[in-house]
Amino acid sequence: MADFHQNGNVATLHNLRTKSVETLNHELTAIGHSRKIGLILPSLYSELEGEALPKILDELSKVTYLHRIVIGLDRADEAQYRHACEFFSRLPQDHVVIWNDGPRMKEIHKRMDDLNIDPGELGKGRNVWFCMGYMMACADTSVVALHDCDIVTYDQELLARLVYPVANPNFRYQMAKGYYPRVGGGKLNGRVSRLLVSPILIALKKVIGDRDYLDFLRSFRYPLSGEFAMRMPMLPDLRIPSDWGLEIGTLSEAWRNLAPSSVCQVELTDNYDHKHQPVSEEDASKGLSRMSVDISKALFRKLAADGTVFTEEVFRTLKATYYRTALDLLENYQADAQMNGLAIDRHAEEQMIELFAQNIMTAGQVFMDNPSATPFIPTWSRVHSADTTLMSDMLKAVAADREAFGV
């Protein structure tokens, strides 16, 4: 993967294999004395029972520069929350498990409802949003990183390379986005990025014309990676979707709030693999089908907010343009895979392109039916202005859960 290519929109920081992870860790530990570094781990309870998370904790236990780890726990009852506290207790860093389904956090949700502040539907975005709020309420961290809990190829170098660009005070970057190749089991993976995001961005440019925003998104080698690192001043005014549009939504916020020169993408690892979602052709509320709808909606809403006018004719044209573009790119992916001794199921991927094409129309219809829907969770700045005690009360709620039920 190593090369010297720069696209001109955002900086690309490559892995040229000339600095060891031990050196990176040493530098970050020195930096961490004055610039505290935190980590957010959004987790479903089911991930505690998988193969990836125990290995992730093994690697994190070796990391000396992390000041705090905040784990957001979704879909857990009381017994599962107790088990989660025990499960994460081997982390040597200061850490906390936010029980999002617990009665105290539900009371925080109710207070938001009473203020007409909607934290969005249950999902990764909402989980991350509450973790960010907790980290801000602690008011002692300079840099926060985020990554998923299902990375089966995880090692500590991934985290070190992710946080280094924003932790290093000599760098200007406010946000870093990770990228990597998606290869596993002898196959070329990354289906949604390859078969939806790349072709729809090309198709949007053909249909609605040049947009700096589209060029910005196309600059990222893996726009759907779940790995981000940000300097804390970015967080209070961050608007993110609560659903599968989180990654695209976060990049959109970087486009809105930061100069492109303040954003970088960084090569994290030679290979990356995680839990693979089912396609769910029969149920658009699940799996990659749901993901494709959420991502498309996030794109349409951001472009509409920037002045793009969408009509049914535009969506029909976009569907046709996307379909042809995706098939053309599939030829390239197949050649790339074959040259590298990897497999692609051409029939299955063409079926997925057909599904995504239909889901573009579905997302367009959802947008047309309710164009005034609020696309993002409100910012924590708004929450704090509406209720100046809520963030501190959230800290107390999490601490009370830990005292009552934790270990």
Automatic annotation (TrEMBL):
<dbReference type="GO" id="GO:0016740">
    <property type="term" value="F:transferase activity"/>
</dbReference>
<protein>
    <submittedName>
        <fullName>Glycosyl transferase</fullName>
    </submittedName>
</protein>
<keyword id="KW-0808">Transferase</keyword>
<dbReference type="InterPro" id="IPR029044">
    <property type="entry name" value="Nucleotide-diphossugar_trans"/>
</dbReference>
